């Protein structure tokens, strides 16, 4: 991260405060009168105890912010998180990390606790993203006095330690920038420790570095990652606790904020970052509230998705009737991660909810068989994702050509072969075998006809065997949709009981797309209704049960 370069300030004889404010100093001794009149704390002069003034300022900062500079690089953290998925992670608290909330900042929350949580989250992001205002927010004397007077007695030891640390910092080091960089690494650390262990596999270093670079430049994504890390930490501690409710309450506030950011964006990249952050909030709703809540957010961001697609002529095609449709192969093979993530969510929700896709897609050619980026995270083979999308479009009555008939789609699935994906963190072949099992499970989940068809029953048995391969691994969360498909065709109580138990286990932090408990209720309704006594069922029976249990 490059250092900020400031314009030349006043004459070097000025006090430190006037230099930072870029004001003309009156050179009064021992303290500048201009600072006093303006309500600022004079930090003294370079020729009379400058080092002491800096130490005093650092003592005040000790009461405001605690930063751990012993953090690992993001790439190392990601690998460690994936390898040690079952380890107990340190319980980081934003209360000890971020400054106290400034008055007048943030939204008017419905409760004091929610307001405090929002202010803490806001301060954490602002100290990272306000590159052009180093330490200015700490120069208010009221805040300094308040913190020092309230915490002086119990923080003497901490203050002395930080004072000694500041004494050892060379004059050429920008301590404020170090704190900002340290906090950004902390947020990345916290986010990855909560979520990376559930990724399908760790992306290669070039892809990972590109992702980290983009996250570091996006204020909206830093907000979203802060909230996501907090929310999943609370889910792991107490799924019914007040802390989780506070995090959920912040989602609405951030959605409004990101919407205003999007429409005020000066560049397409800023708009894309806002869409990506809103998709992260949609996922948080899927995981913590429910599938319908997340789907509502997906509907709201549809205009933003179309706006970004319209900016690139390669991502849409003309329908014979004169209208435009989004090219599924071109979009999912593009370099725009936010657009690919929307496609993935739209395809998954259309499948699992039995609804029409939000977008009219065109299928002009096949997708690039090379990993489309999302495969590293979600584990869905790109070729099969396109087949699922075409099935969704066919069920929705789409007439956008070319839409292949079912024989072509079935042949494409049968001819597809899972590719070996070797992760940098694989210490044995166990995880590689598990990933191949998940890929193969997608093939069997697609090639179904009816619940009593012998091919469906054979695929169900195969998915069950493949599921046992990943039962004890974190990436087992990717079996969610497989389980729903198996439950749809399960005829025997033993199979249904296994599916029910597996779906219920997808809760808390063990959630990838959706919570399993909601869909266990849908399948229970199906099993005791159209499928009672092992009777054959169709996909329409499942959709009717979903509409009854989870109406949109």
TrEMBL record:
PROSITE patterns: ZN2_CY6_FUNGAL_1, ZN2_CY6_FUNGAL_2. Residues 14-42 form the Zn(2)-C6 fungal-type domain. GO terms for molecular function: DNA-binding transcription factor activity, RNA polymerase II-specific; zinc ion binding. Keywords: Nucleus. InterPro entries: Zn2-C6_fun-type_DNA-bd_sf (IPR036864), Zn2Cys6_DnaBD (IPR001138). SMART domains: GAL4. This is Fungal zn(2)-Cys(6) binuclear cluster domain-containing protein. It comes from Thanatephorus cucumeris (strain AG1-IA). The lineage of its organism: Eukaryota, Fungi, Dikarya, Basidiomycota, Agaricomycotina.
């Amino acid at each position: 991260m490059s250092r900020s370069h400031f314009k030349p300030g006043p004459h070097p004889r000025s006090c430190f405060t006037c230099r930072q404010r870029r004001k003309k100093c009156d050179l009064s001794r021992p303290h500048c009168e201009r600072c006093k009149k303006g309500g600022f704390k004079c930090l003294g002069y370079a020729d009379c105890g400058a080092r002491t003034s800096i130490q005093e300022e650092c003592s005040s900062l000790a009461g405001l912010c605690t930063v751990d500079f012993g953090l690992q690089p993001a790439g190392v953290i990601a690998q460690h998180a994936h390898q040690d998925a079952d380890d107990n992670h340190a319980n980081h608290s934003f209360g000890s990390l971020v400054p106290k909330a400034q008055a007048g900042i943030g939204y008017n929350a419905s409760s004091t606790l929610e307001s405090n949580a929002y202010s803490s989250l806001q301060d954490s992001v602002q100290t990272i993203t306000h590159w052009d205002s180093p330490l200015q927010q700490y120069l208010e004397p009221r805040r300094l006095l308040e913190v020092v007077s309230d915490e002086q007695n119990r923080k003497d030891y901490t203050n002395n330690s930080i004072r000694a640390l500041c004494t050892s910092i060379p004059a050429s080091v920008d301590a404020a920038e170090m704190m900002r960089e340290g906090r950004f690494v902390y947020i990345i650390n916290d986010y990855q420790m909560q979520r990376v262990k559930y990724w399908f596999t760790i992306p290669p270093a070039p892809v990972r570095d590109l992702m980290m670079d983009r996250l570091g430049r996006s204020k909206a994504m830093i907000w979203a990652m802060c909230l996501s890390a907090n929310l999943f930490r609370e889910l792991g501690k107490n799924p019914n606790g007040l802390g989780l409710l506070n995090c959920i309450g912040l989602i609405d506030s951030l959605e409004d904020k990101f919407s205003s950011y999007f429409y005020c964006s000066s560049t397409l990249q800023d708009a894309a970052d806002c869409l990506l952050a809103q998709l992260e909030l949609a996922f948080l709703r899927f995981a913590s509230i429910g599938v319908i809540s997340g789907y509502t957010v997906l509907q709201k961001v549809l205009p933003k998705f179309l706006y970004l697609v319209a900016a690139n002529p390669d991502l849409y095609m003309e329908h014979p009737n004169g209208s435009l449709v989004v090219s599924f192969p071109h979009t999912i093979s593009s370099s725009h991660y936010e657009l690919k993530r929307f496609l993935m969510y739209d395809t998954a929700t259309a499948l699992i909810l039995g609804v029409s896709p939000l977008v009219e897609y065109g299928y002009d050619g096949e997708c690039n068989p090379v990993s489309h980026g999302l495969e590293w995270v979600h584990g869905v083979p790109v070729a099969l994702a396109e087949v699922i999308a075409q099935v969704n479009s066919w069920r929705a009555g789409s007439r956008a050509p070319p839409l292949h008939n079912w024989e072509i789609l079935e042949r494409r699935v049968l001819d597809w072969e899972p590719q070996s994906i070797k992760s940098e963190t694989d210490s044995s072949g166990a995880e590689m075998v598990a990933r191949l099992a998940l890929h193969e499970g997608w093939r069997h989940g697609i090639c179904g006809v009816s619940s009593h068809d012998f091919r469906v029953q054979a695929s169900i048995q195969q998915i069950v065997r493949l599921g046992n391969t990943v039962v004890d691994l974190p990436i087992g969360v990717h079996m969610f949709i497989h389980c729903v498909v198996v439950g749809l065709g399960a005829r025997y109580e033993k199979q249904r009981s296994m599916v029910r138990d597996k779906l219920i286990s997808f809760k808390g932090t063990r959630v990838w797309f959706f919570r399993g408990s909601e869909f266990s209720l849908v399948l229970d309704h199906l099993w005791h209704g159209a499928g009672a006594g092992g009777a054959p069922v169709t996909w329409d029976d499942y959709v009717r049960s979903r509409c009854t249990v989870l109406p949109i």
